[in-house]
Amino acid sequence: MAIDLKKFVLRFIDEGRGHLQTISEGAFLLSADEHTDAWIGEMFRAAHTLKGGARMLKLQSIADVTHHLEDVLSELRDKKLTPDRALGNLIHESVEYLSGQLTQLFVSDGDNQLPPADASLCERLASASRGEAVTLVVEAAGPAEKPLPTPPAPVPTIAVDSGIKQADSVRVKLNKLDDLIDILGEVLAGHDRLEQQIQNLSQLVPRLLGLSAEQLRQQIHDFSAQLKESVQVQHLQMYELYDVAARIRMLPLSTLFEPISLQVSELASTLNKQVVCRFVGGEVEIDRQLIDRLSESLTHLLRNAVDHGIGDIDERLALGKSTRGTITISTQQDGSGILLRVEDDGRGLNYEAISAKAVSKGLVPASMAGQLSEQECNELIFHPGFSTSKIVSELSGRGVGLDVVRKTVVTDLQGDLQVHSRQGVGTCFSLRLPVSLAMMRILQFEEQGHLFGLAAQYVVEVVECTPEGINDIAGRPAIILHNEFIPVICAGALLGIHDRQGNVPPAGQRLIVVQNQYSKMALRVDKLLDERKMMIKPLPKNMQQQSLVSGMVQTPDNQLVSILQVPALMAMAQQSRQASPPVQPVSVAQDAWHVLVVDDSLNTREIEKNVLEAHGYQVTLAEDGLSGLQKAKLTQFDAVLTDVEMPFMDGFTFTKSLRGEKNYQHTPIIIVTSRAKEEDRRRGIQVGADAYIAKGDFEQDSLIKTLKMLLC
Predict the structure, then answer these.
(1) Which one of 39, 120, 187, 193 has the fewest beta carbons within 10 angstroms of its own beta carbon?
(2) Where does residue 648 fall: left (phi above 0), alpha (psi -120 to 50 degrees), or beta otherwise?
(3) What ranges in 440-565 are assigned the alpha helix state H?
(4) Whole-angstrom Cα distance, residue 306 to residue 268?
């Protein structure tokens, strides 16, 4: 059955206006020579997304112009073109043309029969992308006068204030409206009870003088009990009212699946591939606001899966796979949020190519080539402008897409994004998202008299720790929690709040352990307040560009609490560690002892790496036993440090397998783990370990002495 594209055009128009506004504002900054690399990147992504949507809906004229516009912005981003006023004007002219096309689409009620693209405009954009001079045309200005353009007005919209029809109306099931009306009736009844109690109080006041002390106490007690009960009932009713109203805004994720299926089919046909899209859990509902903002991210993930993940037919047959690739999008409830996975059965990530590309782009030093862990390579693919595609086409090679996904999911939607891949098997992107951005569970704390909050989905746990429980590892404080080394950061120092009173840290220190992606951090705070579901108030428009605070909540006593962005906090902590190294690093010689560190915790790997490098060792990292074994077979290491509890292959199995290799029968192997039982120690020695160090007793000097003794 043919799919009617018209119903998707209206959404495309709504999203397109936002993208054109971004490009228009950037064009003005280019003309005024006030642009930044970040702005050019935003313009490029907006044009790329607009082009992709136009291609899917067969809006060829819009696709043609945005493709040439994207070429210009790509050259600007790569600094192959020098921005000037004439180029800014040409981009702004393109925006006006595209805006007119969107207006024509709206007036025609979604009819996608647009006239061919403006050939002259396309040619001028193509010339500009090749570095040819752009003719500056200034109307009504003398030869000596070249005024700067005025700041762009918002992209023209239809005269009616409502804008796109779909944006201002939703279909609501009658049972949801019935629930809303029912709870509203209960709220009104509760309000009437409160009013009646106020009247009873006003009637009681004239009689107070005639009451004895005991009668007065009884009257006050009775009134207080009734008022408390009424307030509690209304409190529950108000939260229930919010829940019912919020469910009205909910839409099933299946509303995204039909256009996604269409896009996968179109892209696969373009690339001469056979791809089928499977959907699981489409009935799961989330806030419409999230669905609208999630659409672009899913588009990029699917383009990436079809173009990069699913191999050609011959390639799949050589791997023993069917000719038809499969992309599975699954959703499920995950606590207070949802877990959405985009998984393909393609070729998987090529970590060698990612590592080589990172070196060629200067993202990592050449000495690290081939030594990056899988998690480190997974992080690199989200870097802006990063692409391993050798050919720049309309679909790939431009290095755009996954950086947009991370920004949207992690920063804008307060979620989490992880990627897991096995070469020759496939790749899975996991997105953890809140159900709604308007109401979230918030953990509140106080630091130096200031109130702050953290979205609960980032909080792993809260621990009380004595000063003796905080170790000095690699010159920095850290705790050992659940088989991991977790760095401890003072929240006040990180936020730049100075201790005005010079307080000494208390004996019992409160630590909030937060996690983002693969990293964890323990925030030391003065006082924990509470954790509850709260209404998030967005920041004023002029403050929304800053990344540290995502919104505000209001306490019952009308104080404002800043909700901190955990990803931004962790980035600040990382920068502060890099800016002020605690110890002078020892230069690593080419013939230094080469040590392999195997641990599934990124924090633990990095801390052990810092300890070893500070003493002159060369270090390679692996995130599990299987990866460690593969690296050990490719490179001869002088010593190995391994954890026990790891996915795919644990430390005992890894040690035993490594001892089975001829060239590792006498190599020192040290197990560093939180498992401190005697039977674990005995098993470690039985499988071939030379030393067994419990993380609870970890001392870096002891580790270095043990390593030196075994190597010498």
Answers:
(1) 120
(2) left
(3) 491-495
(4) 6
Q: What's the rounded Cα separation, in Å, for the pair 302 and 416? A: 18
Residues 137, 408: Cα–Cα separation, whole Å? 38
Q: How far apart are CA 395 and CA 700, in angstroms?
A: 50
Separation between Cα atoms, residue 161 and residue 234, nearest integer Å? 37
Per-residue pLDDT, 427: 92
Cα 221–Cα 223–Cα 226 angle in degrees, nearest 5? 110
Structure tokens given for 282: 């489409």
Token pair 């509760």 in the structure block, residue: 190
Dist CA 478 CA 599 (whole Å): 17
CA-to-CA dists, residue 78 to 37, 40, 44, 420, angstroms: 9, 10, 11, 30
Best CA proximity match to 512, nearest among 455, 558, 568, 560? 455
Which contiguous run of DSSP H or E holds residue 266? helix 254-270
Asked whether the beta carbons of 13 and 102 are under 8 A apart, the reply is yes
Please state, in angstroms and rounded to a whole number, the distance separating the CA atoms of residues 656 and 256: 49
Report which DSSP code applies to 664.
G
Q: How far is CA 334 from CA 167, 287, 331, 465, in A?
A: 28, 15, 9, 30
Q: Provide the token pair at 124.
A: 């001028």
Write the burial class of residue 549 (CB in 10 Å: 0-12 exposed, 13-18 middle, 19+ buried): middle
**Looking at per-residue confidence, does 602 or 157 come out higher?**
602
d(CA 163, CA 19): 15
Q: Residue 485's beta-bridge partner residues?
A: 480
* CB distance 371 to 620 below 8 Å: yes
Distance from C-alpha of 48 to C-alpha of 43, rounded to nearest angstrom: 9
- State the amino acid at position 261 in one-letter form: S
The per-residue pLDDT for range 84-112, each reduced to its tens digit, is 778 888 888 888 889 888 888 877 765 66
Q: Got the DSSP string for 597-657?
A: EE-S-HHHHHHHHHHHHHTT-EEEEESSHHHHHHHHHHS--SEEEE-SS-SSS-HHHHHHH
User: Residue 662 has what DSSP assignment?
Assistant: G
First-to-last CA distance in the chain? 74
Q: How far apart are CA 429 and CA 421, in angstroms?
A: 9
Q: CA angle at residue 491 from 488 to 494, to 5 degrees? A: 95
Q: Does the model's pTM come out above 0.85? A: no
Residues composing the chain: 712
Contact of 596 with 622, CB cutoff 8 Å? yes
Type of residue found at 225:
A
- Three-state DSSP at 341 gives strand
Q: What 8-state DSSP symbol labels residue 562? A: E
429 band by pLDDT with thresholds 50, 70 and 90:
very high
Q: Which residues pair with 671 in a beta bridge?
A: 642, 692
Task: Copy the structure tokens of residue 632.
Answer: 């050990």
Whole-number average pLDDT of the chain: 78
Tokens 């939607």 locate to 413
CA distance readout (Å), 376 to 302, 561, 623: 22, 35, 10
Angle at CA 64, nearest 5°, toward 60 and 68? 170
Question: What DSSP line would sit under 176-215, residue for residue?
Answer: HHHHHHHHHHHHHHHHHHHHHHHHHHHHHGGGGGGS-HHH
Share of the chain above pLDDT 70, in %: 83
pLDDT band at 165, cuts 50/70/90?
very low
DSSP, res 238: H
Residues 6+ apart with CB under 8 A from 555: 444, 451, 561
| CA-to-CA dists, residue 437 to 95, 416, 537, angstroms | 31, 14, 10
CA within 13 Å, CB half, 204:
15
- Beta-bridged to residue 337, according to DSSP, are 334, 434
